[in-house]
């Protein structure tokens, strides 16, 4: 198999999985303009877990979800609300300062 074929197959599979996920999410939650908040929360999850680690993304999702809900329950009443949506990005800033490759990402550097 050629490299171009493998890349094409990978992108095709990723597009199909994303489309099916979008259809299922649309059926569960309905379509609304506030759905962009779900997409914006994915970025901190992936950066926290590491861009090259699937297990890290899963663990990062649990961490961000738990911390986001704890902040919404305990800290939102203290600051007047809205902190629940900001906490994932605060976590991303901290992780990028401490471990730029994420919690489970590899640290290798490839020279091309």
Tags for this model:
112 residues, mainly alpha, 2 domains, 0% strand, flat
Provide structural commentary.
- The protein has 4 helices and no strands.
- It has 112 residues and is mainly alpha-helical.
- It starts with a helix and ends in a 14-residue tail after the last helix.
- Helix content is 74%, strand content 0%.
- The mean pLDDT is 86.
- The radius of gyration is 17 Å and the shape is flat.
- It folds into 2 domains: 1-31; 33-112, no CATH class.
- The longest helix has 27 residues, at 3-29.
Structural topology:
Elements lengths: L2 H27 L6 H14 L4 H26 L3 H16 L14
Helix pairs in contact: 2-3, 2-4, 3-4
Task: Write a brief caption for the model.
With 112 residues, this protein is mainly α. Helix content is 74%, strand content 0%.
| First-last Cα distance | 23 Å
How many structural units, i.e. domains? 2
The structural class is mainly alpha
Estimated share of beta-strand residues: under 5%
Name the helicity range: over 70%
Low-confidence stretches: none
Q: Please tell me the overall pLDDT.
A: 86
Order of helices and strands: HHHH
Tell me the overall shape.
Answer: flat
Number-wise, the strands total 0
Radius of gyration over all CA atoms, rounded: 17 Å
Main beta sheet, described? none
What is the number of helical segments per DSSP (H or I, 4+ residues)? 4
């Amino acid at each position: 198999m050629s490299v171009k074929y493998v890349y094409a197959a990978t992108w095709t599979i990723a597009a199909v999985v994303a489309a099916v996920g979008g259809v299922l999410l649309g059926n569960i939650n309905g379509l609304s303009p506030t759905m962009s908040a779900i997409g914006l929360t994915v970025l901190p999850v992936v950066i926290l877990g590491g861009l090259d680690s699937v297990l890290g993304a899963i663990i990062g999702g649990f961490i961000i979800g738990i911390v986001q809900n704890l902040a919404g329950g305990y800290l939102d009443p203290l600051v007047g609300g809205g902190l629940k949506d900001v906490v994932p990005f605060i976590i991303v800033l901290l992780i990028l300062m401490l471990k730029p490759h994420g919690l489970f990402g590899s640290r290798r550097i490839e020279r091309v």
